[in-house]
Each structure stands twice: as C-alpha cells, then as structure tokens.
Amino acid sequence: DVQLQASGGGLVQPGGSLRLSCAASGFTVSAVPMSWVRQAPGKGFEGIANIYSGDIGTSYSDSVKGRFTISRDNAKNTLYLQMDNLKPEDTAIYYCMKGVTRGQGTQVTVSS
User: How far, in Å, are 53, 77, 87 from residue 92 at the CA level?
Assistant: First the structure.
C-alpha cells in the first residue's frame, strides 16, 4: 500500500521558514517523480514543486521559485519541502504526491 504522511506545518511569521516532511511507505521515493501541492482556503489545488527520478532535477511554480526547495532523503525514504521567506499568501494545506496519490496534508499558516 502506498502511504504518504506530511508533517512539519505550523504558524510562522512572514519572512520565516518551515521545513515540511513527507514520510513515504510502500514504494521508494528515489525511484519515482514526486511533488508538493497546496490548497489555500477557498481555492483549488496548486502544484508548486516537483522532483524527478534519476537525479534529472527539480521544477517550481513561479509563486514559490527562489523561496522553496524540494529534496529527498533516500535513506529515510522521505520527501522534504524547505520553505523560506514565507508570505501570507503561502497559507494553505500542503500535500505530497506520488502520481495522483495524495497523502494527508499539513497546515501552514503565515501570519503576524
């Protein structure tokens, strides 16, 4: 069974940082493309970061480029999202995804 569990969200002030984690089971994170998506209050899902298998690289949406970094720890079978210089508009529930499989999300709130 594929399982994805995101954690690390919380309340942070504008300009602050958070690191989200996504613990994966049932597959190997290094072997497949994975992504982070988010859903802000009252809005649809937004894809924000992708990491590709075989060390091909990463890609980001314009809304987070230069502030967020997606990475993975193969030994821990975990996906990460380092979020720096957070803005109020980054407030959302964040989910990790493998293909169309979405795990339980984690809430990020950016507010002073």
Answer: 27, 24, 11
State how far the Cα of 28 lies from the Cα of 20, in Å rounded to an integer. Answer: 18
What's the chain look like in SS3? CCEEEEECCEEECCCCCEEEEEEEECCCHHHCCEEEEEECCCCCEEEEEEECHHHCCEEECCCCCCCEEEEEECCCCEEEEEECCCCHHHCEEEEEEECCEECECEEEEECC
pLDDT in tens, 25-58: 999 999 999 999 999 999 999 999 999 987 679 9
* Closest of 74, 25, 80 to residue 53, by C-alpha: 74
pLDDT at residue 56, as a whole number: 78
Q: What is the CA radius of gyration of the chain?
A: 13
Measured between alpha carbons, how far is residue 54 from residues 34, 92, 103 in Å?
Answer: 12, 30, 23
Task: Tally the residues of the chain.
Answer: 112
